[in-house]
Write a structure and sequence with these properties.
This protein is an alpha/beta fold and 306 residues long. Helices cover 42% and strands 10% of the residues. Helix 6 packs parallel to helix 7, helix 8 crosses helix 9 and helix 11 crosses helix 12. The N terminus is likely disordered. Pfam families: His_Phos_1 (PF00300). Keywords: Glycolysis, Hydrolase, Isomerase, Phosphoprotein.
Length: 306
Amino acid sequence: MRHEDVEGRSGRRRGQTTHPSRRLASCTSWVSRLLRIASLRSIGSGTHKLLEMAKYQIVMIRHGESEWNKLNKFCGWHDAMLSEQGVAEAHAAGKALKEANFKFDIAFTSVLTRANKTLDIILNEIGQTNIPISKTWRLNERHYGGLTGLNKAETAQKHGEEQVKIWRRSFDIPPPPMDESNPHYKEIIEDPRYADGPSKAEFPMFESLKLTIARTLPYWNETIVPAMKAGKKILIAAHGNSLRGIVKHLDAMSDEAIMGLNLPTGIPFVYELDENIKPVVSMKFLGDEETVRKAMEAVAAQGKAK
């Protein structure tokens, strides 16, 4: 994997740095651009012409709301279950995909239950439970290290909203590492789902978005893209940060721009790609723009002190 795949394109001169808080505030225009194309129902004639250039299509979805999303906790690799609302979101996503007549040949997901359950519900709704499913830790959520299990708003009260925003949304600043004092340490490190990987050397105790991308993109490039090029119609059910990494890669987003992208739970989005796996149309949500906007804003507000 080339260095630029992980680092992204920042547009800064070599050696020039930007304070994380300024970078976090600089990406509104990019997110606004994504929202302008966020509704499948509002595709105009210009977009239809673009679709004629598309060779591949892929659908992605962040899992439905989890119990820890509901409690506003840093979740990461903790295996939280879907909340009642999350189950409803997954059913709604499946109905939307069925209404839009999507068919899939293969699905990819993480090893975490909230993503697996979201995928299962969707496949039941669209009547495609017989397709192969590939599960990998490389599509897991970002590992939140020592923040795992902490309430985001309470953490903001203790450390300040700016620090929590940096931990949540900066590109290359990791959270504090998880150690044995964390009550969720053993449940994660001893989870039998990781017996075949990651290796001891690969197993993270924390991750920045940069590190998350570094372990997600090899799977994208070596497994998902070849399946796409082989003509497979693909659905990915994963997590906010593993999907943000794929989006950053596809749209060649700068390190600054990706900081402002907050993916909502349970709303599928579609990429139309050309023969070089470059976006013809980016991030079309199966939902109206206002619903998507409010859901994104709700995710962004999770780190505010109360």
